Amino acid sequence: MSEVNPWRIALSLLVTLVLFSPLLLQADEMETNCADDFARGVQQHYRDVDRLKATFRQTTETVSLGSRRLSRSNKALEGKVYLQKPSKMRWEYELPEPSLVVSDGDVMWLYDPAQKEVQRMAVAGGLMNMAGVQFLIGQGEILTDFTASTQSCTPVGGRVVVQLVPRQERTYEKLEIVIETSDNAIVETSVFDLFGNITRVALKDIHTDEKLEAGLFQFQVPEGVSVIDLTPPNP
User: Fold this and answer.
1) Helix (H, G, I), strand (E, B) or coil at 153
2) How far apart are CA 102 and CA 37, in angstroms?
3) What pLDDT is stored for residue 88 in this prediction?
4) Best label site of 5, 33, 178, 198, fewest CB within 10 Å?
5) pLDDT at 69
6) Distance, CA of 118 to chain centre
7) What integer is the mean pLDDT of 33-38?
8) What are the chain's domains?
9) Averaged pLDDT, 21-50
10) What is the arithmetic mean of pLDDT over 223-234?
11) Whole-angstrom Cα distance, residue 35 to residue 63?
12) CB 53 within 8 A of CB 211
């Protein structure tokens, strides 16, 4: 498969401040409280949203010999994303080369046209267990799953950045979300993995009021494409 990694499509980050005095403690508590308020706003926003359509730009910073570099020779991945409750999603990668991630809520497909290969896997126990994806489609509880913090309670350009650290061990270290304070929508997410690599996804042209055709979340294996079935066998 190419560099499409659905485990990194989502939402991410946190910072834990070391406190040296009661004055710093007071400031930290205030920042934590406002971060919780921002998180509650995001939670409510996506509870009221049944579907979402947007364009996205995904970049990955990889750690190499103590420095950072953008993966894929500095090329961003771009395309369209469609989300619909419950647990349906479609990521259409268009640039620099086409690929596709589709889930109907039960089965997820990862299609690489260049390799003429598709992977089939069960959603249960996989991507949808990432809380960062779950709360975008109205599932999970941000403040139950994460500790929220922010470096500033004051929006800059109408946006705030909230860091999220999972309360339980995950396959990633932390998440960071950029929130549009006018409507509490997420416009950018970052996933920090356990090795220090960062995957960022920026959303634009977000629509939550357009009808999405059911066929968007179905996948038919094209002729000549090999299937790698990763679903668990029936008991």
Assistant:
1) coil
2) 33
3) 86
4) 33
5) 57
6) 22
7) 92
8) 6-18+38-229 (2.50.20.10)
9) 68
10) 86
11) 28
12) no
What pLDDT does residue 20 have? Answer: 21
- The structure tokens listed for 64 are 């190499």
What amino acid is encoded at 79 in this protein? G
- What is the pLDDT, as a whole number, of residue 134? 58
- Report helix, strand or coil for 2: coil
Distance from C-alpha of 20 to C-alpha of 22, rounded to nearest angstrom: 7
14: helix, strand or coil: coil
Helix/strand/coil for 60: strand
pLDDT for 37: 93
Phi, psi dihedrals of residue 35, rounded to the nearest 5°:
-65, -40
In terms of residues, how long is the chain? Answer: 235
Measured CA to CA, the distance from residue 131 to residue 137 in angstroms comes to 10
Mean pLDDT score across all residues of the chain: 78
204 vs 32: CA distance, rounded Å? 28
Q: How far apart are CA 4 and CA 39, in angstroms?
A: 28
pTM assigned to the model: 0.77
The Cα 89–Cα 76 span in angstroms is 21
Dist CA 59 CA 78 (whole Å): 9
Amino acid at 188: E
Whether the CB-CB separation of 163 and 38 falls below 8 Å is answered with no
Element (H, E) at 119: strand 117-122
Inter-residue contact 9 to 58 (CB < 8 Å)? yes
CA 168, distance to chain mean position in Å, is 18
Mean pLDDT of 161-184: 89
> What is the predicted pLDDT for the residue at 234?
65
